[in-house]
Structure formats: structure tokens, C-alpha cells
Design goal:
A hairpin with a 3-residue loop joins strand 24 and strand 25. By secondary structure, the protein is mainly β. The chain has 8 helices and 43 strands.
Length: 789
């Protein structure tokens, strides 16, 4: 059984039938010594692999005086049944022969003649100084005291240790908890887990050992992976699992993938698995035939993600190098199912039997850790900060006009999306619509950031398809141009380059709208949490940059929030802001609006008017807790009144991911957005009750899709028309996430707005180099031709 299955037994009470200290030598490098280094050797007297992860050997001088301290050497890996495990310690100046490669290394200068070694569960130094106290400590699995050691097991310490002699157990590894009886002095005979001795090659190099015999164990990779997402061997040790190394990761979560070339006939069981080496850089290479001993673990990158089956704490034996790799499994429109995932009524799918011919997530899981490949593929998500990007292996699946893949409903997630990273080289800087031609190959991994990811050992040929930023037309003289733009936490401390790029988007790509509703304007010192609330410096810097880029000299209006009440970065005091061109449009100022005072609608002979402009919609409602409150302003254009409502609904943070273990995923954030949508809907209804022909534009970052309940609530009663639905389906997106082109930003108008021209201006979301992660949008309204005129 694994070591972790042996809680709290006492060395003196229960002699070990598993791991024991089999040999101790402290004379390495001393006068007369042959070996150059001290060592401690462990052995496994049991019939199961013994997991050493998180354990240590510790040394105490033989006198155990008040000033003596236990010295610690941490262990890792596993100890196979019947095998040895070698720990190299202090090196002297004498001797001629190196140890065989240790399985673990320390630097303790052990005494040749007297001392105590303890095998300990944990790496915290012991504090005991007597035999009774130490043998009673439940963390202590075995103790060897030699020479005149005070701390020992039984009637006395083992005797006879010297510069030329170790103390060692008999070949039977008998442990009666009496050091004097169990260990005898003799010529040092260190053996590592690969079975190497000082005269058999593999000299002391501080590396990892293997599994002793070169015969494979009884457990294969497909046994480990099993027919569900969770391994039947989870938390169990496995011995000498055979495979060929197919990929090596030397940064981040280090390790390597192995694949068994002798596949079984069950399509549900993967033949590949990741071997996690932690902080240690793997010493294997692609093509090595290996035997891996370790513990099977299920690693969840996040609380809602699926797990990755791994072998942890490994020791490895390399049998040969340069071996051929198994043929890669193909990812394409014929192999990846159209249905996305099984439904567990919101519960975990991890224990469900895999159905790889029915569900895409099951298909990918059945290949977890295996070599996979796709041919010509289109990029659908640009390269991110980690040099990862998204492709689709289904070129005809919901294509957008510019090369992406449209996310069009909860019922039809895009199954052909696969994330790609490069193991060997830095990947290309790819934009949506770019292409990889030829074959891309590598092990299939799983990441919390997006799900299944191909770790490429071979990338196809990259082709830049020349995606360009869009530039919308300029509004005509009789058109009121109203835009919305999420400028991603802009504050006065940001680099001038960010201001200039965002300004270019307003002045050139949006062609200088008359009104711009901005989301994510922060206070003047950004996320510095010192009570600063004003955004005057931020807006002065931004409008100056717009003018320098060829735009107008915009004026602005906003409501200053209370400190740290509107969500976003702590101290950032995020808000919506109206920019407007005073040469084209007038802002109707009606004083009195503030962070907690609601504006409302009054009916006049001239139509509906706001009580406060700028103002907020019911800002004390629970719907806006820790979230941005809508900003409402009254404008006049060519003598006509237009109400503009700028929104930034609460984010989708906390929702379970599409690719996660809980299916169907819970979208818990929708509850607050539904309440926010209801507040705005009620306000618009009050506006229309005062004037059925009121012209209003509701816009901003709603953080939800055009098919969501949020939008349905917002438009309830047909009081608003979502303009995104007036575009062809292939153009309905403002944001790209995990390779899905989707709509989070919206513009909606009241029924009186009958003559308009609407455009999403794609300049950020599809590009690796972004000024913001959102695309802006614009509506040009011919106010004179709208209903009621």
C-alpha cells in the first residue's frame, strides 16, 4: 500500500513491513575510505510501491546533546517493492569511487562512527533527543542508531561503523526494532533504485533513479486512464509503467508525456499520460522508452475544471532512446462529435462513462495525454500573453465573416475549438483568420484556461492572412452618431501609448462619433486605494489624445461614484462617462444627480425630460451592489431630444466554464444581471409612458449574449430593439473568448428610432495586439426621420 495509507504508527510498537533504513554509511571521503560520499539507503520489504513524496531522512549526532539539531534531507519519488532507494549525503576529500546516481541528495556530514538516522513522514525537523521520545513520535517510520548513539531502537545501537564500514540490514530486511540485532557492520554496498552499484556504471550525478528491474509492471497507461475522467488508480502507487516519451515541458508545470505503443481496443481509454516532475526539469527526451514508477493523481487546475490524470513523484528508468512514436490521433470534422458534452443536471460528469463517439468533451478526454494532430486549420482566437492561440478543426462550424467561430446559442457550443501551445518554440503571433497549413502534432493536455490544449511538438506552417482593423464611415450631417467603447480600466497613470491607441480608435476607426459612452474609466490614480474619486485628469488626457489623432475636442459628463462601491479593481472607482462633441450636440445639464440620487422621467409639453442630467438609475437598488450604476444623459441634436443610457452590467466572473466538470454549467452571475436589466427596463418604460415617441439609446457592456435572459429581460415588453440582431449572423460579435466570437456589448433603441445605421467596428477582439479586449460599436440615427417627427 502507499505510504499515505499508513497513518500514525509507532516505530517501537510495529516493526516496519514496508520501507526501512537498510544501510547507513558516514565515512565517505574520510581517510582510508573508498567511497567519496556518505549515504543512507532505504529498501522496501513490502509487496506494494511505497510513495516517498513529502518524506525525509533526518540525522542527529550520536551524543544527542542539548545543542544538537536534526538535519533534514527531503525525499521524492517512489520505492518499488523489493527495491532500494539511495540518498547521497556529505562528500569528503578522500576516496576514489563515486556512489551510483543517488535517488535523492543532501549535504549532511554524517559521523563515520556514531549517529542516528530517522525515516520521517514530513520534512519538519524532529526535536526529540531520547530514544523513547523519538520512537513514540508517530511521524517516525524507522530509526537506525549506530556506534554510541543515544537515540536508537531496542537494546542498543548497531556497532562497527567506521571510515571503511557501514551498518546494514540482512538481505531479508528483517526489522525487529532492535538496531543491535538487525544491522551489522561490513563493506559499504550502496544500491540505487535503478539497481546500480558503484562498479556498475551510472556514477553519482545527483539525478533521479528508476524502477530497478527493466521488466514492465502490470499496470499500463490505459489502465491508469480508465473509462471515465477519473483514474481507477487515483491516489495509488504504480510501478514501472511502460511508455514512449512524446513531449517534454521544461517550464511552468514541468514534466513529460508518455504513450504506450501497445494500445488496447477500448476507444474510451487514453494511451497517454502526463508525468509531473514539479520543479525538477525532466531528464528524458522525446523518443525515450521508459518505465515510470510513481503515484497516480487527479489534478484539478481550478475548482470547476475537469481533472488531469498524472503520475506524480516519479522515478524513471530509460530503456532506450530514439524510438518511433505512435501515430497521432486525428482531430477534424469527421472525428470530433457535434454534441458538446453529456448532461449531468448540473453535477459533475467526471464519473460518467466516456462516450467519445457522441460528445466532443468525451472525445477529447479519451485522448488526454496522447499524441494528436490536425491538418489545415483556421485561427479563431488570437495569440495571448502565454503564446497560446485557438484554432478550429471544423472549418464550417459557425464561421464569422472575418474568420472566427461564432458563439450563437447555449445549445450549440462550438466543438471544433482547440487551444494550441508550442513546446519547442515560441508560437506565432496569430490573429483571427490566420491559418496553419500542414500538420500540427503534440500531446493533448487540459488547462483551466480554456480546456483542452494541444501541446505542439510540431507546428504547421503559419500564414498571416492580413486581418485589418475596420474603419466605419463618418456620420452625415443629419445623423446623430452614438458609440460605446469599453476602454479597459483606463486611468491617468496608464502609458501614453494606451491613450493614443484608444484615441485612434475613436477618432479614426469610429470616425469621431457625436457621443461616446465609455466603460471602465477609472479615477485619476487607478487602482491605488486612497480614496481618490475624480477622473478629470484621466479624461483630460484621453480627450487631448483624441484631438491629437484628428478628432474633435470632446467635452464630458459623469457621476462620481462613492469610494469602492461600483466593483472593478479596488481603489479604481470604475465608471461610465459620456464624451460629446459640443459643436454637433448639446448636453442638457440638470443639476442634482449624484452617486446615490436617482434620476427620473417627467412629462412636459416638450416631451419627456430627466429630473437630473447626468443622473443614475435607482442607484441604491440591490441590483447595483458592487457594480456600476447606469449613467443617463439628455442630449439635444437638431432640436430633437435624445436620452442616452450608458451601462456596464456585472461581469460573468464566477460562472462555471463551458469545458468544466459541471454540466450543464451554472451561470450564477446571470441573477444580478437579470435584476439590473429589469431596473433599466423599468426606467425605459417610464420614459415611454411619458412620451411614447421618446428617442432613447441604451448601450454599453452588458456582459451577456444577445440570446441571454439578460437581454430578454432588458427588452421585455418590446420597449427596446437590440441592434446586434439587425446584423447578419456572421457579424454578431464584439468580443472573442476561448476561440468563441460572441456579443457582450450592445446597443438598443426605443421604437421611435426607426431610421438608423448600425455597425460593430472590429479593431481589438480578433487581434493579438489590442488596445482593449472589446470592439466598439456605433449607431447613426437620422433623428429627423424617426417616429413622432
Amino acid at each position: 500500500m502507499a505510504l499515505t495509507a499508513l497513518p500514525a504508527w509507532t516505530a517501537a510498537a510495529v516493526p516496519s513491513a514496508t520501507a526501512v533504513i537498510s544501510e547507513v554509511y558516514g565515512g565517505g571521503g574520510n581517510s582510508g575510505a573508498t567511497l567519496t560520499r556518505d549515504f543512507v539507503e532505504l529498501a522496501n520489504a513490502g509487496s506494494e510501491v511505497f510513495d516517498l513524496s513529502g518524506y525525509s531522512v533526518q540525522y542527529l549526532p550520536g551524543s544527542a546533546s542539548a545543542g544538537s539539531l536534526w538535519q533534514v534531507t527531503s525525499l521524492s519519488g517512489s520505492l518499488a517493492a523489493g527495491n532500494h532507494y539511495l540518498i547521497g549525503e556529505g562528500t569528503g576529500t578522500g576516496g576514489t569511487t563515486a556512489l551510483p546516481t543517488p535517488d535523492a541528495s543532501g549535504s549532511i556530514a554524517m559521523s563515520a562512527t556514531t549517529g542516528t538516522i530517522a525515516l520521517v513522514s514530513g520534512t519538519t525537523a524532529l526535536t526529540c533527543k531520547t530514544a523513547a521520545d523519538c520512537t513514540a513520535d508517530s511521524r517516525v517510520l524507522d530509526i537506525v542508531g549506530y556506534g554510541t548513539a543515544v537515540v536508537r531502537e531496542g537494546s542498543g545501537p548497531a556497532t562497527g561503523a567506521s571510515n571503511t564500514a557501514s551498518v546494514a540490514r540482512a538481505e531479508s530486511l528483517a526489522d525487529t526494532d532492535d538496531n543491535a540485532a538487525d544491522l551489522t557492520a561490513g563493506t559499504p554496498t550502496p544500491v540505487n533504485s535503478a539497481g546500480q552499484t558503484p562498479d556498475s556504471g551510472g556514477g553519482d550525478g545527483g539525478g533521479g533513479g528508476g524502477g530497478g528491474t527493466t521488466d514492465p509492471g502490470t499496470v499500463r497507461v490505459h489502465d491508469i486512464q480508465g473509462t471515465t475522467r477519473l483514474s481507477p488508480y487515483a491516489n495509488k502507487a504504480v510501478t514501472r509503467v511502460p511508455g514512449i516519451v512524446t513531449g517534454v515541458r521544461t517550464s511552468g508545470s514541468k514534466g513529460y508525456w508518455i504513450q504506450d505503443p501497445e494500445a488496447d481496443t477500448d476507444a474510451r481509454t487514453s494511451e497517454g499520460v502526463f508525468v509531473y516532475t514539479g520543479s525538477a526539469t525532466p531528464t528524458v527526451a522525446v523518443g525515450d522508452s521508459v518505465l515510470v514508477t510513481g503515484k497516480v493523481s487527479e489534478y484539478h487546475p481550478s475548482s470547476t475544471s475537469q481533472s488531469v490524470t498524472e503520475i506524480t513523484g516519479p522515478t524513471v528508468t530509460v530503456l532506450s532512446s530514439g524510438n518511433a512514436l505512435s501515430e497521432a490521433a486525428t482531430l477534424d470534422a469527421t472525428t470530433v462529435p457535434d454534441a458538446y458534452t453529456p448532461d449531468a443536471a448540473g453535477g459533475s460528469i467526471e464519473s460518467l462513462p466516456l462516450e467519445p463517439t457522441t460528445y466532443a468533451l468525451d472525445f477529447y478526454e479519451s485522448l488526454e495525454g496522447m499524441r494528436t494532430a490536425f491538418g489545415d486549420a483556421r485561427v479563431v482566437g488570437a495569440t495571448d500573453a502565454y503564446d497560446e492561440f485557438w484554432v478550429t478543426v471544423k472549418p464550417d462550424e459557425h464561421p464569422t465573416k472575418r474568420g472566427g467561430t461564432l458563439y450563437s446559442s447555449y445549445a450549440e457550443p462550438n466543438t471544433g475549438r482547440v487551444k494550441v501551445a508550442s513546446l519547442d518554440t515560441t508560437g506565432p503571433t496569430a490573429n483571427v483568420g490566420d491559418e496553419l497549413s500542414g500538420t500540427t502534432t503534440g500531446p493533448l493536455d487540459y488547462s483551466t484556461y480554456g480546456g483542452y490544449i494541444l501541446q505542439a511538438t510540431q507546428l504547421g506552417t503559419f500564414a498571416d492572412k492580413g486581418l485589418k482593423q475596420e474603419v466605419t464611415r463618418r456620420q452625415k450631417g443629419n445623423e446623430l452618431a452614438v458609440a460605446t467603447y469599453n476602454v479597459e480600466n483606463l486611468d491617468a497613470l496608464d502609458a501614453q501609448e494606451k491613450f493614443d491607441r484608444l484615441a485612434q480608435g475613436v477618432a479614426t476607426n469610429l470616425n469621431s462619433p457625436d457621443i461616446v459612452a465609455l466603460e471602465e474609466i477609472q479615477d485619476d490614480n487607478g487602482a491605488t486605494n486612497d480614496g481618490t474619486l475624480t477622473s478629470e485628469e484621466t479624461l483630460g488626457k484621453f480627450t487631448a489624445a483624441i484631438h491629437a489623432a484628428g478628432g474633435p475636442r470632446y467635452s464630458w459628463r459623469y457621476i462620481t461614484p462613492e469610494n469602492n462601491t461600483d466593483g472593478g479593481e479596488p481603489g479604481g472607482n470604475i465608471r461610465q462617462v459620456f464624451l460629446f462633441n459640443p459643436k454637433r450636440v448639446d448636453f442638457v445639464d440638470r443639476a442634482g444627480g449624484d452617486a446615490t440620487t436617482a434620476t427620473s422621467v417627467v412629462k412636459t409639453r416638450k416631451g419627456a425630460q430627466l429630473t437630473y442630467s447626468p443622473g443614475r438609475i435607482n442607484p441604491t437598488s440591490e441590483a447595483w451592489d458592487s457594480s456600476r450604476k447606469p449613467l443617463v444623459g439628455e442630449f439635444r441634436f437638431h432640436g430633437e431630444s435624445v436620452i442616452v443610457i450608458a451601462n456596464h452590467f456585472t461581469s460573468k466572473g464566477g460562472d462555471q466554464p463551458l469545458h468544466g466538470r459541471y454540466q450543464q454549467p451554472t451561470r450564477s452571475s446571470e441573477t444580478q444581471r437579470a435584476a439590473q436589466a429589469a431596473e433599466v427596463n423599468t426606467f425605459v418604460k417610464s420614459l415611454l409612458a411619458a412620451d411614447k415617441d421618446a428617442k432613447a439609446v441604451v448601450l454599453g457592456d452588458l456582459n451577456d449574449y444577445e440570446f441571454s435572459d439578460t437581454v430578454k429581460t432588458l427588452t421585455s415588453g418590446n420597449v427596446l430593439t437590440p441592434l446586434i440582431t439587425t446584423l447578419p449572423p456572421s457579424e454578431r460579435y464584439t468580443y472573442v473568448y476561448d476561440g468563441n466570437s460572441q456579443t457582450l456589448d450592445h446597443t438598443l433603441t426605443t421604437p421611435a428610432v426607426t431610421h438608423f445605421d448600425y455597425d460593430v467596428v472590429h479593431l481589438n477582439a480578433e487581434f493579438a495586439d489590442q488596445a482593449s479586449d472589446h470592439d466598439p460599436q456605433i449607431v447613426r440615427i437620422d433623428v429627423s426621420r424617426c417616429r413622432g417627427n
